[in-house]
Specification:
The complex is a heterodimer of chains A (451) and B (484). Chain A has a 6-stranded antiparallel β-sheet. Chain A has 2 domains: 208 residues, PmbA/TldD fold (2-Layer Sandwich); 228 residues, no CATH class. With 451 residues, chain A is α+β, with helices and mostly antiparallel strands. With 484 residues, chain B is an alpha+beta fold. In chain B, 22% of the residues lie in helices and 41% in strands. Chain B contains 10 helices and 24 strands. The chains are: A alpha+beta (451), B alpha+beta (484). Strand 2 of chain A pairs parallel with strand 3 of chain B, so a sheet runs across the interface.
Chain lengths: 451, 484
């Protein structure tokens, strides 16, 4: 159960008002979430979790301090505020107070983020659905594993000079992995509104990939044209967000955008932006400093044009925050949380034909983007479906492959993007997502193969 | 001692669950303190403290599990949480045909506390900052070092576990650690060196005395010098050669290619939708040649100072020292009271949750490579041509834990038994059993080092466990190496 707007914001407001600091900012995230995990016809984990985290940031002159607590009782909040103030007196003096506790000038976009049906669904109905899907899989000769998450949360940010943001959210998702021997197929969906959940389509997709994935063969490593499904594209884009689209990475000169802003670094078919108000993703209208999220173009028609900012990094370069502050106890700097890649003109159904000859990849596993962040060089493996395509048709399954590839180079060789895009997100997290099309990339480099 | 109100609340709720007719229930209260101080380029850039406290209730009703967690710690809150757990279990019990069989364990009343000399939470923050500033000053002392970072981190986790079987276990662990990182730049060349590990703090279950022992100030000059040396270093060649891994890389190799695949829940398919499966399937137990005869890997939950050290796991099973690979043979899983009986074994005591709001799952404890004989110098001396690699930089492995690729921050050429020039951007790749099968030497216990990894991700919702790994330098033959 949520605490509700008045109860939560009032507790935060009282703490802000009684704070001895010059400015006090409190952000609270309350969540109530049910997760069911299943495999081999059994639900093996079923957790109902009620959680609360309150981050406190204070400014004392030009110094700031941070503390976190899991209680919204006034004595706990006062203790945490005092801890933050004590820290502020120790911290380094900054040239400016970096955050604001006054209401922002920007308007918080009006987006629907709470859909009551997502959390009203009786637990028994969800359990019955899982056992039904598992039993049908068994009868179809496959085993089913996966998870379903359904939950609600509320986010509030209160500042001592009048800042007040509150928004409730619902979120959920279903992940399915169908297996038959060593063959597997994956399908997943995440949503704010459970009405979007289509378990039948997901089951068909997981089954279909699993059946196609039987008897995988080895192929020589080397360069192949690839059709990447949205899950694969999303994993790459998330890594690019982490290593390149944040102001800290740009300032510390580790971003692949370093020295390249304004330059064409990808194919002109590629446009990427971050937009917390786009309902195609899991929209979140403001960040943990209460700043409304701006639509931030990052790559426009292949040209590098921007990064995202929080108040601290914005002040360093005399800009305004774009609304991308993370929890105050993180020091990763601002990061994009609602990445979107624009779609293309090719219907998804025509992409295999357009690929002609190459590899069709359902998703990646364990990608690592730290090899050379300047070139966005990444390595990772394919998972749950890698197929050799000849003459626009699937010619057979292939054993999982390792790629080692600069994504700047890969995104400079784009043959096509699907018109349709898909939202990819971790439903248990619920506050970030990626919306991407399927992509055809030429000359993608594979450097190894698993057994 | 746990607060009396918590002891009372847990005992009362345990009694309530017994009255409600559960087959089994356990309650786990957790309070965790975390403090983090980061100095970057001689500025105190980030200091934070956090406190989180709550309870997780796990019930078994008609052979089905139900879990609920909450940070509401009063009688009504616990009753509500208990009701939620019962509701979860009953909903599943109606449909399941397979009943959970839990391995019985004797009830225990016990207390455990990390032995420590200096409680890090009682050390003044100014003292910690001074230490970091000094280290950062040494680290930054070169024009090419653009970012010098020094970090300290401390955790204190207080747990109270009680079960309807009569167990009552209180455990308080304290972890201390940190890291140094120097980023050097020359034109477009960017190189990084870290200590003791990269990307996150290396923790030990210990007090502030561990911070002193880390000797950041003494190590900072070496870290700086190596970062600068990488700027003009030769690229690591692409070839098949002999590789010697230092412990600060070997621990990640152990973690990814041994620690995860010996988790029984993975082997039974319970992580398929997220982390993946394991090539070490139950029928391979006791038969599969995982590595050469020199490879002995042990999961030891009682290892002094280990990040994965405890007296009892999160379902009341006593800590154990378990050989998982003996003389190269796969001989045991990390397991739980539920998973172990499914393959006719007993729990090896590895059920852990990363906090009050998480369910216990099978986790690594301290998974270490047992020492062999000799020194690093001996290993190098016996190598005609090869590469010495140190400090993990990047990591990737497939969903069954077979095909891996690791990058390290630095490498050195080995020629005719001597360490030669520095090599930059090294990576190596292989297939797990082939790689461990090529292990030709493990150095002795004098070279053995213990590290703590605080960010092992597993489960849905994702949990980040603190696990320990120890290793001596080891040598591997015919390894594919290359530049990044």
């Amino acid at each position: 159960m949520l605490l509700g707007k008045s109860r939560l914001t009032e507790a935060l407001r009282r703490a802000a008002q009684s704070s001895p600091a010059d400015q006090t900012l409190l952000a609270a995230q309350r969540s109530s979430q049910t997760t069911l995990r299943f495999s081999a016809g059994q639900i093996h984990q079923n957790l109902h979790e009620e959680d609360l985290t309150i981050w406190i940031k204070v400014a004392c002159g030009h110094r700031s301090g941070v503390a976190t607590t899991s209680s919204f009782k006034q004595d706990a909040l006062r203790k945490a505020v005092d801890a933050a103030v004590a820290i502020a007196h120790l911290s380094g003096k900054q040239a400016f107070p970096s955050f604001s506790t006054a209401p922002p000038k920007e308007i918080v976009p009006s987006i629907e983020t709470y859909f009551p049906d997502t959390v009203r669904r009786p637990l028994e109905e969800t359990v019955r659905m899982i056992y039904g899907l598992s039993e049908r899989s068994r009868k179809a000769g496959m085993s089913l594993a996966g998870s379903i998450v359904l939950g609600e949360s509320e986010l509030s940010v209160i500042g001592s000079r009048g800042l007040a943001q509150y928004r409730p959210f619902t979120s959920g998702g279903l992940r399915l992995v169908a297996t038959e021997g060593s063959a597997s197929g994956f399908a997943a969906q995440s949503f704010r509104n459970i009405a979007e959940m289509d378990e039948e389509a997901l089951l068909e997709s997981a089954w279909g990939t699993c059946r196609l994935n039987r008897h995988p063969q080895s192929i020589p490593v080397g360069k192949y044209d690839v059709l990447l499904e949205p899950e694969a594209v999303a994993e790459i884009l998330e890594w690019m967000g982490t290593i390149g689209f944040g102001a800290k990475q740009l300032q510390e000169r580790t971003s692949f955008l370093t020295g390249r802003l304004g330059e064409k670094i990808m194919d002109r078919k590629i446009s990427i932006f971050d937009d917390g108000s786009d309902p195609a993703g899991l929209a979140v209208p403001f960040d943990l400093e209460g700043v409304p999220k701006q639509r931030v173009p990052l790559i426009d028609k292949g040209r590098a044009i921007g990064v995202v900012y929080d108040s601290h990094y914005a002040k360093l370069v005399h800009r305004r925050s774009t609304g991308h502050a993370l929890p105050y106890d993180e020091f990763e700097g601002p990061l994009p949380t609602n990445l979107v890649m624009e779609g293309g003109s090719t219907p998804r159904a025509q992409l295999l034909k357009k690929l002609g000859r190459g590899l069709w990849i359902r998703r990646f596993h364990y990608v690592n983007g730290l090899l050379d962040t300047h070139e966005a060089l990444m390595t990772g493996l394919t998972r749950d479906g890698t197929f050799l395509v000849k003459n626009g048709k699937v010619a057979g399954a292939v054993k999982n492959l390792r790629f080692t590839q600069s994504m700047l180079e890969a995104f400079s060789k784009v043959a096509a993007l699907s018109k349709e895009r898909r939202r990819v997100a971790d439903p248990a997290q619920g506050f970030s997502s990626v919306v991407v099309p399927a992509l055809i990339l030429r000359d993608f480099t594979f450097t190894g193969q698993t057994r | 001692m746990a607060p009396p109100r918590i002891t009372h609340l847990l005992s009362e709720t345990c009694r309530l669950l017994k009255r409600r007719g559960v087959d089994y229930a356990d309650l786990r209260w957790v309070e965790q303190l975390h403090e983090e101080l980061l100095v970057q380029n001689l500025q105190a850039r980030h200091i934070s403290t956090s406190t989180t406290e709550g309870v997780c209730i796990r019930v078994l009703v008609q052979g089905a599990w139900g879990y609920a967690s909450s940070c509401r710690l009063d009688a009504e809150g616990l009753r509500h949480t208990a009701d939620k757990a019962l509701e979860m279990a009953r909903a599943v019990a109606q449909h399941t045909s397979t009943r959970v069989k839990l391995q019985p364990v004797p009830p225990v009343k016990a207390r455990y506390e990390t032995p420590l000399e200096v409680d890090p939470f009682r050390v003044e923050r100014q003292k910690k900052l001074d230490y970091l500033m000094w280290a950062c000053h040494v680290l930054k002392d070169h024009d090419s070092i653009k970012t010098a970072t020094a970090l300290l981190e401390f955790y204190q986790t207080h747990k109270l576990f009680c079960s309807t079987e009569g167990s009552f276990i209180e455990q308080k662990t304290t972890e201390s650690g940190g890291m140094l990182e120097a980023t050097a730049m020359l034109g477009s060349e960017v190189q990084r060196r870290s200590f003791p590990t990269a990307n996150s703090s290396s923790l030990r279950q210990a007090g502030y005395e561990h911070v002193k022992a880390l000797d950041f100030v003494g190590e900072a000059a070496r870290v700086r010098k190596e970062a600068v040396s990488l700027l003009r270093a030769k690229e690591c060649p692409s070839e098949v050669t002999t590789v010697i891994l230092l412990p600060d890389q070997l621990i990640l190799q152990l973690h990814e290619s041994c620690g995860h695949p010996v988790e029984l829940d993975r082997a039974l398919g319970q992580e398929l939708s997220f982390a993946g499966g394991s090539f070490l399937t139950p029928e391979t137990l006791g038969k599969y040649r995982y590595g050469s005869k020199r490879v002995n890997i042990t999961a030891d939950a009682g290892l002094p100072n280990g990040c994965g050290t405890f007296a009892y796991d999160d379902e009341g099973v006593a800590a154990q020292r378990v050989p998982v690979i003996r003389d190269g043979l796969f001989v045991e899983y990390l397991s739980s009271r539920e998973s172990a009986p499914r393959i006719g074994r007993r729990s090896t005591g590895a059920m852990r949750a990363d906090g009050w709001n998480a369910v216990p799952i099978v986790r690594m404890t301290n998974v270490s490579l047992e020492p062999g004989a000799g020194t690093l110098e001996d290993l190098v001396r016996d190598t005609r041509k090869g590469i010495l690699m140190a400090t993990n930089k990047s990591w990737s492995i497939d969903d069954r834990r077979l095909n891996f690729q690791f990058g390290t921050e630095i490498a050195w050429e080995i020629r005719d038994g001597k360490i030669g020039q520095v090599l930059k951007n090294p990576v190596y790749t292989g297939i797990t059993p082939e790689f461990w099968g090529s292990c030709s030497a493990v150095a002795g216990k004098e070279e053995w080092k213990l590290y703590g990894v605080p960010n092992c991700a597993k489960g849905e919702p994702v949990q980040l466990a603190h696990v320990g790994h120890g290793a001596s330098p080891a040598r591997f033959e015919k390894v594919r190496v290359g530049k990044r």
